[in-house]
Design goal:
The chain has 321 residues and is mainly alpha-helical. The protein has a domain at 209-317: Serine Threonine Protein Phosphatase 5, Tetratricopeptide repeat, CATH 1.25.40. It contains 17 helices and no strands.
């Protein structure tokens, strides 16, 4: 039975006088209850809560005989309403974007539901709280309030340790805070928990950037290792390119050929296509495959950058047919 029906189902309560002092107290409680019912029907939740709680306070001062059957029925009607109203109010606040205030109302709903043994509220509050914490954390992340975002995501993870989306968002936040190690740990955990779309791409990007940065210092082993990690999470043209050029430098010719061929198959119109042909020619030459090396060197004879070395390889060193 919903709240409004409960209100009108017990609308038979009225002010009675069955003892001057006690009757007046019960009458005030009933009037206060009725005022709360009107406010609730008008969705004035703070007013309704204030009225119902005041009515309960008045009833609490009455003894069993003073309260009578009418007072008991009134109390029994109010108690299960309180958590429901907090829940409704929380939902309204959430829909208006007041997430922090909504979370406060949800906490009150859960607390009052526990105290009054109202079924269903705690479960609904639990799910709604997760949604609101996630929305709040994401909002804080997007607005650059990174420390607050971490705190919010941690609250969500504490109550829902397998929430892969929250762990993924925490990873993004840590990445923005230049905590790369922490970010990688979170992103890997998110993948373990089933976030297999965005987390792998983000991890791949991290390792691609590390790989590309190491080309400037010619740390070819570092370029190679990070490119491998990047492709393990999400294969990409850049990943294969970095893997290919580092493999050439490390004389890992089989890996170089496979990576460069994959790069060109993914990006046939690559602007550095001739540079890749040169690396393929170098790799096949390193493997002792003269025919394939000659084939790639010949494709570079008209390229201004590689023409001189290509002519030397084709005409003098390899003596290609």
């Amino acid at each position: 039975m919903n709240i409004v029906r409960k209100i009108f189902a017990i609308s038979f309560f009225s002010i009675t006088s069955f003892g001057v002092a006690f009757g007046q107290d019960l009458a005030v409680a009933t009037d206060t209850y009725n005022a709360g019912a009107v406010a609730l029907n008008n969705k004035e939740y703070p007013v309704a809560l204030k009225s119902f709680n005041k009515a309960l306070q008045i009833l609490a001062l009455l003894g069993p005989e003073e309260m009578g059957e009418e007072g008991k029925n009134l109390k029994d009607a109010i108690i299960p309403l309180i958590p429901q109203i907090h829940l409704r109010y929380g939902k309204e606040l959430a829909s208006n974007g007041s997430i922090d205030e909504a979370l406060k109302q949800l906490s009150k709903a859960a607390s009052s539901a526990t105290n009054s043994n109202v079924e269903g509220v705690i479960e609904e509050v639990s799910e709604l709280r997760k949604q609101l914490l996630f929305a709040s954390g994401s909002k804080l992340l997007n607005s650059g309030k990174l420390n607050e975002a971490i705190t919010t995501f941690d609250k969500l993870i504490e109550i829902d340790p397998t929430n892969s989306d929250a762990i993924f968002r925490k990873g993004l936040t840590l990445l923005k805070m230049d905590n790369e190690e922490g970010a990688i740990s979170c992103l890997e955990k998110a993948i373990e928990l089933g976030e297999t779309q965005n987390a792998p791409r983000q991890l791949s990007t991290i390792f691609l950037k590390k790989s590309a940065a190491l080309t400037r210092t010619k740390d070819w082993n570092g370029v190679f290792q990070n490119a491998i990690k990047a492709n393990q999470y999400n294969e990409s043209p850049m990943g294969f390119k970095l893997l290919g050029i580092s493999s050439v430098q490390l004389k890992k010719y089989d890996e170089a050929i496979a990576a460069i061929e994959s790069y060109l198959s993914l990006d046939p119109a690559a602007k550095d296509k001739n540079n890749m042909f040169y690396n393929l020619a170098t790799s096949f030459e390193g493997k002792g495959d003269k025919a394939k090396a000659c084939g790639y060197y010949k494709q570079l004879l008209n390229d201004p950058t590689f023409k001189q070395v290509a002519e030397y390889k084709v005409k003098t060193e390899l003596k290609c047919n």
